[in-house]
Amino acid sequence: MQYLTNYKGETFDKVPTSVFVDYEAWFYGCKNQYQAEPDIMGWFNHVRDKGELRDVIFFADFSQEAIKDHPIKLRSISTSIIDCSKGDKTKDYTDFIMLDHIYQHLFRRQEIKHFILFTGDSHFQSIVAFLRNFNDKMVGIYAVEGSLSSLLSDAANWYAKILPSTERNNSLEQAILKNLTWVQEKSDIIATYRKTVSVVSRNNPEFSEGDVDSTLSKMIASGIIRQEEAVLPTTGYLVKKLIFDETGDSSNISQNDSNECS
């Protein structure tokens, strides 16, 4: 998975759910931070498990050159696409128009129990708090990793941060190298393959043991990490010790070829 989630103990019953997407925030968050484009269908497959979807509404100023053709892509999911073009005005109206639609749903669509917003902007903290605290609604947030306001995430029932594959893989590799560097400073500990997989996964719960196993295997194959025979100090057993040479060239840390932000 490419989502860093915090469900705060929430379970997802199939209650009527509406989704409001600031597509500008999604598109430019991916483009500016990760040189990627939104993986629209990948995200839809993730969000559709969060409730009984009644609406998925996209908001953006589609007059901008970079995204002017994107409504065609979005129609594979929804026909509710709101063009927030501002004409010759300089003010950005996307947030205001999205807020207006959220309030309209709250007052006119009483059956909606779960509101999901795709935005990292702290400006939405007030509406999230209003939905939860005064209207007994569940609220979830999607945002591109690095753009989610802590005020907004704290106000919601749950949130999911989208992390592109390239960045996620690099984060896992760095976690593995951090663990090996720490172990190598200890004279009484030897880093074995299986122990490293277990420890890195336990200390970084967003990565499963399968994720760590696969990435560690690739790092050994590429020469970033090497294995040497060593004797366990506690048992005398012969094992293969993992070694990372910090002075070596780690520039070949693997990069995923995907250019979709999902």
Topology:
Blueprint: E1 3-6, E2 16-22, H1 23-34, E3 37-38, H2 40-47, E4 52-60, H3 70-74, E5 81-83, H4 94-108, E6 114-118, H5 125-135, E7 138-144, H6 150-155, E8 158-162, H7 165-184, H8 193-203, H9 209-221, E9 226-231, E10 238-243, E11 260-261
Parallel strand pairs: 2-4, 2-6, 3-11, 4-5, 6-7, 7-8
Antiparallel strand pairs: 1-8, 9-10
Helix pairs in contact: 7-8, 7-9, 8-9
Keywords:
Arc Repressor Mutant, subunit A; 21% strand; single chain; 262 residues; elongated
The spatial strand order of the largest sheet comes to 1-8-7-6-2-4-5
> Could you say what the CATH topology of the largest domain is called?
Rossmann fold
User: Number of DSSP strands?
Assistant: 11
Beta fraction: 15-25%
Which regions have little confidence, pLDDT < 50, spanning 5+ residues? 248-258
Which of globular, elongated, flat, extended, rod-shaped describes the shape? elongated
Number of domains: 2
What would CATH call the architecture of the largest domain? 3-Layer(aba) Sandwich
* Structural class based on helices, strands and sheet pairing: alpha/beta
Total helical elements: 9
Average of per-residue pLDDT values:
88
Which CATH class of the largest domain? Alpha Beta
The radius of gyration is 23 Å
How much helicity do the residues have? Answer: 25-40%
Largest sheet, strands/sense/barrel: 7 strands, mixed
The CATH superfamily of the largest domain appears as 5'-nuclease
H and E string: EEHEHEHEHEHEHEHHHEEE
Distance between the termini: 9 Å
